[in-house]
Amino acid sequence: MVNKMHIAVTVNGKDREADVEPRLLLVHFLRENLSLTGTHIGCDTSNCGACTVMLNGMTVKSCTVFAVQANGKKVTTVEGLANGAKLHPIQEGFWEKHGLQCGYCTPGMMMAAVALLQKNQNPTEEEIRRGISGNLCRCTGYVKIVEAIQYAAEKLKETQQQGMEVPAR
Amino acid sequence: MATEQVIHGMGSPIKRKEDPMLIRGRGNYVDDIKLPGMLFLDFVRSPYAHARIKSINAEKAKALPGVVAVITGNDLKGLGLDWIPTLAGDKMMVLPTEKVVYQMQEVVGVVAEDRYIAADAVNLVEVEYEPLPVVTDPFKALEKGSTIIREDKGTNHIFHWEVGDKAATDQLFKEADVTVKQDLYYPRIHVSYMETCGCVADFNSVEGHLTLYMTTQAPHAVRTVAALVTKIPENKIRIVSPDIGGGFGGKVYVYPGYVVATVGSIVSGCPVKWINDRSDDQPSTAFGRDFHMRAELAAKKDGTILAVRIKTISDHGAFHGDANPTKFPVGLFSICTGSYDLKNAFAEVDAAYTNKPQGGITYRCSFRVTEAVYAIERMVDVLAHKIGMDPAELRMKNFIPKEKFPYRSALGWTYDSGNYRDALKKAMDKIGYADLRKEQEEKRKKGELMGIGVSSFTEIVGAGPSHDFDILGLKMFDSAEIRIHPTGKVIARFGTKSQGQGHATTYAQIIAEELGIPTDDITIEEGDTDTAPYGLGTYASRSTPVAGAAAAMASRKIRDKAKKIAAYLLEAREEDLAWERGRFYVKGSPDKGKTIQEIAFAAYTNHPPGVEAGLEAVDYYDPPNMTFPFGSYICVVDIDRATGEPKVRRFLAIDDCGNIINPLIVDGQIQGALAMGYGTAFMEEIKYDEEGNVFGGNFMDYLIPSAVETPKWETDKTITPSPHHPLGTKGVGESATVGSPAAFVNAVVDALAHAGVTHIDMPLNPWKIRKALEEKGLAIES
Amino acid sequence: MNELTHKQSQCILVSLRLEPVRGLHMIPASFEYSSPKTLSEAISLLETSGSDSKILAGGQSLIPVMKLRLGSPSRLIDINNIEGLNYIRESDGFLRIGALTRIVDLESSELLKKKYPIINDAASHIADPTVRNLGTAGGNVSHADPANDLPAAMLALSAEFVATSSGGSRVIKAKDFFVDAFTTALKHEEILTEIRIPQFTVGNGGAYLKLEKRVGDFAIAGVAAQISVTQGVTVAKAGIGLTAVGSSAIEAVEAEQYLIGQTLTAEAISTASKLAARASNPGTDLRGPGEYKREMIIVLTTRALKRAYLRATGGAA
Ligand SMILES: Cc1cc2nc3c(=O)[nH]c(=O)nc-3n(C[C@H](O)[C@H](O)[C@H](O)COP(=O)(O)OP(=O)(O)OC[C@H]3O[C@@H](n4cnc5c(N)ncnc54)[C@H](O)[C@@H]3O)c2cc1C
Ligand code: FES
Ligand code: FES
Fold it and tell me: I need a surface site. Which of B106, C3, C105, C255 has the fewest CB within 10 A?
């Protein structure tokens, strides 16, 4: 019936393989095939960023990428942020600073923030706000999200000074 | 005894208990639920706003491998489910049998093995329509001879409602030195929770039992209505409201998807999931507002405001579906006298059916308080500019003085407590109001435009006292059930349902405060009708005022019983015992005492004769009155005279929601609601053309604010406890959506008022501002 | 209804019933997929597959279109795995940008910031950082949405587009490239491989200004202006491109011609800006009334020319 293609994707450090239709969106591959439901869907026009994941180290909207495009690549989702029981500094920041309410935008927002902090260790408030401009939140009014990211920036600097590895597989 | 750090009672800014799961991506939202054999439901939707259905041909869809069922209105009719009652006592179509009444209305449901096949099948269904004349303008809908949208009603006029003494108000207007009049349109907006509506329906045909996981803010009310409509006994319906990705009032309504998924599950024998795409959700689920107001104020020369008069046409779409308390078809709009000591007031509303989806009450609006506050706060500024008085000064002059509380308003509410002058004064001092006015003056001389907008709102929340408040007859109490287990750990259940408000944390803090048990030892559960006590749900900022009070009252019942047990254990008389948080001790010998944990253990191991074992309590709290949160907001805006772009430079919110349970959460609620107010004021709007085509029906066209536009909110507070709430709290979820739009608009108009601009309707798009600039000769070329 | 021009978001098209509304927004129709490793492979796939096959670059326009089922290509030819199409460099008198260069790379390129900041301006206004990670320069111009931001900049820069097919390469000038809404001069069998821009020497400056309802939204209106000035005063060359005010990106030719030989006085700028507005033909839609957009072309052209002049003469901004 439908043509399927074999793909192999490394998701949060694990090798995953599947036969998928070319039209399968990466977000559905993660959520339905792999049951990684932390990546959310908030829109159908690529505007909200709830589906943001890392593809080979850069953020993409997984609703606007086909799963077949991820073949042979590495994907990191919110489930891959923490290192076992140890939260990623961005997760700590969101918790400490009340950076989430309903939590629906949060996984995508955190991925965007991690990407931002990888590029820019000392972002200004303006740079943070621009950095997450592709991620919409309806609950928080953003102030506390900004604070959460600032918290994570500080934490990341500390860990780097201590020569510790920051998880972002 | 546990220390303060551990207990985290009232006022403690603790981190939320719900977050560890959510930040790990392990929340459980409806679309995350996966049941064995689950099918997927998708809808064919109407391209027409009003059209007769001539034929439906689903043969090609049915022939597509993987398609399990196609459900039409006629199929539902056989089950008596083609129409269902709305919460407002009207009825609504589930799927049409004869005609569609708005664009994007669900027409045919397709159930398939997965969402990809369902989408393909939707594409194969052929529906033939015969377009009918469309009515999208509520004024035209109410004209004689207008096309009738609801043949079953025979008219587009839904209701007329009025409140106040018309004759006395008219008289005040006659006698007034000054009157002002302004048409104010509160645009149609959508709540735009980030998670769209959806459900998983799982009907067990052997037991005749339905489990419905759904995005609802009011699971118990839904279950009762479902039982009445489907004839499935209420004990065989379980509604589960899992993690909810924002509700804001839009998830109080019942949508066709829930019903058709249920029917799909009954028909197929499999669980059926339905999840709206954003572009389905935005134009078909409940809108908010759409209120056409004509507002007037009467005043004396010196600025004393005498009366307010408001005439409104409200657009309800094709079904009157808003979740209003039955006796209040326009919600609590009669709070429109605001924070002012007025002699009289009169308001009237005529509601119309139009070819649009249902709605009206949604979106953090506190039952139409948004519209009421917007009207009065906007009009105070219109008056101020007319009589040449500073808007803040005019407010100060007319505020209800704090000595007058409890205050009986002209339209019949008894405001519980307030201190409006102090709140505004604090805001003015903090933002440097006098200096800003000077700066404005100097800027004007240089040809630069800045505006300062004030809004001093009074909210009314906590619906509500059962003598006045019910929905479809269900009284608007709410409930808490607290169980203390032998080791002193607590599970408490509520009739409300958090959608991000942090109930798991704040309710635990209330119980911690009342019983001295650490919040870490308290688990809060909501949203499962099988386990939670009955309650009307979470909307209109009612959770803290009602269910929060129930938590306190149930805790106190437990404390009463604990006292008996303690007396038994300590071999003392009850009246000789004193309570300090977490412990009863013998008066005069503080060393002799029993902790609540020791008492809990005894309740199961060594309870006194004549006293029942166990330590638990239920409370159904019926509030004696509403609570009346308030605040003063000040907005500073700069206007680009060439493009018309407004830029909010500062926004300060002073809120008073009585005693505070968790300052972090209160702050978050206010900031979030401010962002929504910003969206309403500057960006959001759903529009229809004359053919009923919807504009703003998805996230590409309906722009909600991003982090870049959203101002950096400044927040602070005053505290005026509610005298009748057991904790002195008032509720805060909607204060800022209610209070802020007027501050934004007042600021923009203030920037242009010297040139004679009196009003610009929201959303304040740059082109509307530019037009005003042009009309008053203020526009420049670059 | 006819006030709404085709260029608006695809979703409006849906609500306008140009396509029947079926409640389809998320799931694309089925297609075949290939991801060639070389350009020649990609070209031969284009030639052998049907006329409704499509190149997939960043996918940030194409995938949304497919999700809405406004386009249902039978085959996608993913060019992301072809090496050597992602570069920004100057050589042989041209600034050369590989078609697969990501918008994020345009945004952050030091070379562009220094010498061609107009591209930088435009790139940083496209969508949001996440979309810019995948979206490509080639895709942005090939999609030819009149509301895309790069086309106007390309017009102002007198860019040339290198189209490669099995017969070799041909060069299309920007003014011939943007034919109509969503239509370019590229043939189906051609792949855009490079965008090239005549290399600048001193005295050149450009700027792109975009007015938007929300950050990263499609423009209400946008203006790209590039000028070269001799002796710090006289305009020798001028390019002005307009975004979102017609059925394609528009070159404001009259304004350009007027500027040549002018000294950039306030009056000259004003005249040029009005001429630019005359070249526009905006419609009314959710992003504003046509009349307003035309006014804004005046405002934006004025501001863009001022900034371009500052940059051309070594001033800041
Ligand atoms: C939320 C959102 C907001 C956006 N906002 C803006 C905005 O403000 N401004 C703006 O300019 N853009 C905006 N875009 C569009 C975005 O910039 C796209 O990335 C860009 O327009 C297309 O680039 P792409 O590489 O993703 O192209 P694709 O989507 O892969 O392709 C687009 C079209 O070009 C064709 N194509 C691509 N590359 C080639 C090639 N080398 N040769 C021949 N044909 C080719 C494809 O076949 C397709 O028809 C937005 C997109 C989104 C999702
Ligand atoms: S789901 Fe909204 S951008 Fe992907
Ligand atoms: S926390 Fe609810 S959308 Fe961001």
Answer: C3
